[in-house]
Amino acid sequence: MREMFKGGMTGDNWLLFNEWYKNLESSVMWKSIKSKPVNKFQGVRQGGVWSPTAYKVFINTLLKMFEMNGLGAHLGSIYCGIPTVADDVTLISNNQYEMQAMLNVLSDYANKHRYIISSQKSCTLQYGSKTEHLFTLNGQPLQNSIKATHLGIDHDVNSKYGVKDCVPSRIQTVYALMGAGLHGLNGLNPKISMHLVKMYVLPRLLYGLDSIRLSVSDMKLLSVYYTKLLKQIQHLPERTATSAVYLLLGQIPVEAELHKRMLNFFGNIIRNHGSVERDVAIRQLAVMPRDSNSWFVKIIDLTEQYGLIPSPHDHINVPPVKIEWKILQEKLSLNIEGST
After folding, report:
1. Rounded Cα distance, 239 and 225, in Å
2. Cα dist from 50 to 5, 193, 257, 272, whole Å
3. Which of 68, 106, 164, 193 lies 20 to 30 angstroms, CA to CA, from 93?
4. Quick check: 230 and 281 in contact, CB under 8 A?
5. pLDDT, tens digit (0-9, with 9 covering 90-100), for 196-211
């Protein structure tokens, strides 16, 4: 409530949330039995609509503190030292002493607000470092790891793109549906199965992959798996031509589906004026050579691959509104279906 007031929320708006958070209680449901209520004196309401925004208001002071003091990584003149989504905080620095200073500031802020950041649930990834450095949080050593998962994406220090083996773990999410009839022989109708694939499988399979560059092996594994899945729900033999598998269901390849999501993500970035992501996009499109591994260079390749005009550089200067971007996505779908 103090952070809300410091952020400019006053008067009746502040009083509304102050009353909303009074006398909170929580219960535990176990095997249809409800426990006695327990009083809650801190934290956001579990499952509340306002809760994610409330936590952002709470954590924003810490993020501003890092930015104002310039602690953390910069991409050119753009500060990107502490990318954060809700309570998932990542500290980035190319200097070991600066990184330890950031950890100290983080723990001091948490202690000041009477909560503890667990050193057991945190780890460090050290890219391109010949010597392994030891970092501490609250006086406890942090585990040095070669792999960690953040926002559903596996980051690996030994990978060319910073991520590795993203696809195998995603594929496991579909196998639970097989027992429910997601197969062609004596299972659900292929049309219904395809609806389940589009509503459940694809979002889980491609979540977060539109923000990174997949390796060739990961993309091949993804395509092989998706084609095999579509053959299975139609009960088609293994030797069936790939083009026929997609045409019978009226679908596009999973690689093209991922490309659509990448372009849609790019559209969200360039329409968000004043954001760090848009500043990064402008810089990367201006300075990155065409043979680099930049995600934004991949976007340029996609616009050329599908014959989309204008180019990302033009979109940056004059961002299309959502309806124009939707028309561009429809054009992309037509180009994909034509090539298929």
Report:
1. 15
2. 16, 35, 32, 22
3. 164
4. no
5. 888 888 888 888 888 8
